[in-house]
Design goal:
Blueprint: E1 6-8, H1 22-28, H2 46-49, E2 52-57, E3 60-65, H3 66-82, H4 84-87, E4 90-92, E5 116-121, E6 124-125, E7 132-134, H5 135-146, E8 149-151, E9 162-165, H6 167-175, H7 184-187, H8 200-211, H9 224-236, H10 247-254
Antiparallel strand pairs: 1-7, 2-3, 4-5, 5-6, 5-9, 8-9
């Protein structure tokens, strides 16, 4: 095994977990900042800042959301036991970093909440977007998935260095009261899609909109064009044109 050798993305990955939707993060945890850029900044929302901790996990010093750091510690413990050769060379390139997703001017990176981490192996970052992944990452990804973390190799633009707390994990924490008693009920409601979301759910949305006459590129990115198409569909159906895929819009669009 060559830990940093590049191999194909595994066919089976991220079973049962999905990337954390932007609306999930905003509605259940809050907005880290009023303004973002492409540069790393700290959260200015005091409620979120109060939940940010710095801790040493094995050889790694990380700063992130308290629940995420605790979960990461459990992940790393399992990696040490199950894949010690990979564990021995794991480093990281950051966890907390309030900014936009690379290349976007509206999608907020989940690093902004300190719920994502970019890993290095033997001091090397995986090359983003080339469709190949470091072999060592393929060995630890199932362990992250088991702990309800999503692996960035599953993004439309492969980002295999990236691991983030899944939508399911964030909602579980919220349902347990981690982000306040008033949030518990909201955590149990069906998740919604909105501007800034990415993934297969967005691709399904774009395909459905195209069946209703939209001419969207099915790229899995909920950007301005998808937002406009959603609002147009909602207006045509007599729904509030807020650009958000909630229960009423989902039922009207998908029939369920």
């Amino acid at each position: 095994m060559s830990i940093t050798r590049y191999v194909s993305i595994p066919k089976e990955l991220n079973a049962g977990v999905s990337p954390a939707r932007q609306q999930t993060m905003l509605s259940l945890i809050g907005n880290p900042r009023a303004q973002y850029s492409s540069e790393c900044q700290n959260p200015t929302n005091s409620r979120i800042s109060a939940q940010i901790v710095t801790a040493k996990i094995s050889r790694l010093k990380v700063t992130g959301l308290d629940r995420a750091v605790q979960s990461l510690n459990e992940v790393m413990s399992d990696i040490e036991k199950e894949v010690p050769k990979v564990f021995a060379v794991i480093g990281h390139a950051g966890m907390l970093c309030a900014r936009f997703v690379r290349g976007s001017q509206f999608a907020i990176s989940n690093h902004s909440w300190g719920t994502a981490i970019d890993l290095t192996l033997d001091g090397q970052l995986d090359r983003r977007g080339d469709g190949l992944v470091q072999e060592g990452l393929t060995l630890i990804a199932p362990i992250f998935n088991r702990h309800s973390w999503f692996w960035g190799a599953g993004f439309r633009t492969e980002d295999a260095m990236h691991f983030e707390c899944s939508d399911e994990l964030i909602r579980r924490w919220a349902a347990e009261g981690a982000f306040g008693a008033e949030i518990v009920k909201a955590a149990r409601e069906s998740p919604i899609l909105s501007l800034g979301d990415r993934g297969t759910d967005v691709m399904d949305l774009q395909k459905a909109l195209n069946k209703h006459g939209s001419l969207l590129l099915v790229d899995g990115e909920f950007g301005r064009n998808t937002l406009a198409a959603v609002m147009a569909f909602q207006a045509a159906q007599g729904l509030t044109p807020d650009g958000v895929i909630g229960e009423k819009t989902r039922k009207s669009l998908f029939g369920k």
